[in-house]
Amino acid sequence: MPLSSGIEQRRAKNARGLAAFGVQTAGTGEHIRTVRSGSAVTIYTVGYERRDGEELMSILRDQGIKALADIRQRPMSRKPDFRAAALRGFCAEAGIEYQAWPMLGSTDEQREDLQSSGDFAAFAQQFRAYAKKNMDADLRRLAGSIKRTPTALLCYERLHEDCHRSVIAELVADAINASVIAIQ
To answer: Among 66, 33, 74, 75, which residue's Cα sits nearest to residue 169?
Structure first.
């Protein structure tokens, strides 16, 4: 049975990609998870692990995302689609505003500590304290942007709870009583 629309075709492609990652989907919207419920404002989070640029853009369009906040300290990647210039191009073609927020990335030292320890809970606690102390003004600016435009926070890790973006999303959500939705 042929798929009748571009959206249905994108959703089917996304479901195949998720299945390869071990995430099961049976229908529309099952690749999203509500992490926190809040007011009418929603913060989305997404990782590009095991995706390509086209898949990411289709997922963002399907969710009604209008801005992509790249919160990597260094927006570089071994995957060409996710280098800043390429990602900016994908976003422009998809009608999504690309926003660079490198000041909201975890530091080299923090990432090295996480890599050597493997303890994400300790990393998250350390990063949360660092963010509260050093990122307050930038978090307020991000919150203002999210209030105006449906926005997804982007970093590498596919799973929200394995990435520093979960901490950034939590801090912004606390400040503006927002919902948080993780795109798996």
So the answer is: 33
CB burial readout 139-152, b (16+ within 10 A) else e: beebbebbeeebbb
What's the confidence (pLDDT) of residue 35? 95
Q: Domains in the chain, please, with CATH?
A: 31-183 (3.90.190)
Residues of the chain short of pLDDT 50, as ranges, are 1-4, 7, 18-29
Write the burial class of residue 169 (CB in 10 Å: 0-12 exposed, 13-18 middle, 19+ buried): buried
Mean pLDDT score of the chain, rounded to an integer?
87
Residue recorded with tokens 């976003």: 91
What are the CA-CA distances from residue 80 to residues 38, 48, 77 (Å)? Answer: 36, 12, 7
Residue type for position 158 = R
Distance, in Å, from the CA atom of 104 to the CA atom of 52, rounded to the nearest integer, reads 23
